[in-house]
Amino acid sequence: MSASWIESKRKRGNRRLLFPRNAGNTGMEGERLNELALFAGAGGGILGGKLLGWRTVCGVEFNAYRARRLIQRQNEEHLPPFPVWDDVRSFDGRPWRGLVDVVSGGFPCQDISAAGNGAGIDGENSGLWREMFRIICEVRPRFAFVENSPLLTRRGLSRVLGDLASVGYDATWGVLGADDAGAPHIRKRIWIVAHSEKIDGERRLGIRESSESIQRKSEKSRAIAQRWMESVTRNAGGGNGMANRVDRTEAIGDGQVPRVVELAWKILSKEFQI
Fold first, then answer.
1. pTM of the prediction?
2. Where are the transmembrane segments (predicted)?
């Protein structure tokens, strides 16, 4: 067994969880989840959801260049068709209640990361967690999937976990890097999966698909992800599956690595056997 372990800490019961790098699949195989992708960037996180068999039904992205890339990726059939809203601050999650199983997103880390000003989760940018939490409360999905700088552990994790717990979500978290998914760079990030079985007092039901159907879709998405990664490696000298050049360089810095998204979900969601 690999000597590399991923540490995770569950809020309720304060248990320490240890997972090997090659942890197995999630217990929710065969279930297609509808995703609302906040802070969607150029689509790395959404592609990670495709690797899991998810269907993205809506995305929110403020940066005009990245929003255009999302539309371009849809036109190229790298991503499924979905509407893109421009600002989390004006996004109304209430019409999506009952239609979304996962609200995902990496809220801005500029005030949390080592390169930032250290203002933490109350900073001007990272304070947008409040909007993500508001949308979670409005949508009431079965799952929330959150990503940020690992320094969130000292600059706001208790706020995130406390907010989620206050509205009935149990949460587990861990730190995972691109190198854990086989990429040639480290890029450690914190990942949080939160789960609530009830919405307005009734259990939520996901959309069921055969495991064969999910497997076929995931294999197709994996092939797309591989072509995406190879293209970026050739053009940018990097390997995190995102865009390149000037605006694209910033998109790389802020973006999620699709294979890490997939791996983080598979490891952390094992805690919630549905």
1. 0.75
2. none
